[in-house]
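[Meeting: bench + compute handoff]

Bench side (C.D.) handed over the final construct sequence. Compute side (W.E.) agreed to return the predicted structure before the next meeting so the bench team could plan truncations. Sequence as handed over:
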Amino acid sequence: MQIYIDNKSTAPIYDQIYTQIKSQIISGALKENTLLPSIRGLARDLQISFITTKRAYDELEKDGFIYTMQGKGCFVAQQNAELLREEHLKKIEKLLDEVSVLSKACNLNPAEVHEMLDFSMEEKL
C-alpha cells in the first residue's frame, strides 16, 4: 500500500489518507482481509501524528471499508456490491460532467458524444 501526502494540497492530511486507501480498496488493489499498516506504523512512515492516521482509519471503518480486530490490527472489509456500484456511479457522473463541458467547448452535439461513447465501449467490451 502506498500513500502520498501532498503538503501543497488544501485537503486535510487525514482526508488524503482516507481517499487514497478507499480508492485502493475500490479498485481492488487492496483485497478483502488484507492487513493494513498499524496506525502508529503508518504515522511514523508518513512522518505525521498518529492522531491524524487514527482519524483516517476511524472514518474508513465508519464507512465500512475496513474493520478492526482488537490486538491484531485493521483489515480491508468485505465490500458490499451495492456500495461499490454506488462509488463507481459517482465516478461515472463526475466524468460525464467533464465530458459535457469538453463537448460544449468543441461544439459537439449529443448524437456525436453518444457515437464517441458507443465506439469507446465497443472497443472495451
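W.E. noted at the follow-up: The longest helix spans residues 81-105. C.D. will use this when planning the next construct.
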